[in-house]
Amino acid sequence: MLEIERVLLSEKEIADRVRELGNQITEDYQHLAVKIGDAPNILAIGVLKGVVPFYADLCRAIALPLAFDFISVSSYGQATSSSGTVRILKDLDVPLEEYHVLMIEDIIDTGLTLTYLKENILRRNPLSFKIATLLDKPDRREVPITADYNGFVISDFFVVGYGLDCMECCRNLPYIAAVRTI
Ligand code: IMP
Question: How is residue 72 annotated by DSSP?
C-alpha cells in the first residue's frame, strides 16, 4: 500500500517553473526556428509514459515550431528502483539526421535510462542534442549525466504525480508528492 507523505511541488510551482523553462528554451533555440508553415527542424522527443503532462505543458511554453515524437522504454527491476537494463518498447517514428533533438524526460534518478537513450539517439546523428528534465535526483546518480534544462533538483524521495507513478498509481495527480509504502 502507498501513502502520500507530503506534497513536494504544488500545481502552481510546477506551472511557473515549466513556463520559465519554456522561455529559456525558446531563447536558446530562437536562431534555429523555421517559419510557421515550414516543416519544423526541432524535434521534441518525449520518453513515455511519465513525461506526458510535462511534455504537453513544456512544448506549449516553447514559442517555436516543434515536431513531436515519442519513445517508450522499460527498465527491469523493482517498482521503486531502476535496474539499468533498458529495452525499447516503442521506437521513434522518424530518422533524426535533419532534426535538432530536445529529449524530454520526467526524472533523472540513477541516470542509467537517460545514458542509454542519449547514446542510442546520438548514434542516429541528429543535428544537435539536448536534454530537458522536470526533476533531478543527483544524490542517486550512478552514471554521470546531466540535463541542459532542469526543472527542480530534489532529494532522494520516491515521488508520484504530474505523470510520475508508482506501479501505475497517481500519474494524474496535478502536484508532485513524496510517497512511502506502508
Ligand atoms: P533512472 O534510469 O534510474 O534514471 O530512472 C529513470 C526512470 O525511473 C524515470 O524515467 C522514471 O520512470 C523512474 N523513476 C525514477 N525515480 C522515480 C520516482 O521518484 N518516481 C517515479 N518514477 C521514478
Answer: E
Measured CA to CA, the distance from residue 147 to residue 166 in angstroms comes to: 23
Is the four-CA dihedral 121, 132, 142, 167 of positive or negative sign?
A: negative
Any idea which residues carry the catalytic annotation? Answer: 109
Q: What is the pTM of this model?
A: 0.94
Cell for 53? 503532462
DSSP reduced 3-state for 136: strand
pLDDT digits over 102-115, tens only? 999 999 999 999 99
Q: What is the dihedral of CA 134, 138, 139, 140, to 10 degrees?
A: 80
Task: Out of 48, 51, 75, 82, give the residue to mutate to test ligand 1, the one with the largest number of ligand atoms within 8 Å of its CB.
Answer: 82
Tell me how far apart the alpha carbons of residues 67 and 42 are, in angstroms, rounded to a whole number. 6
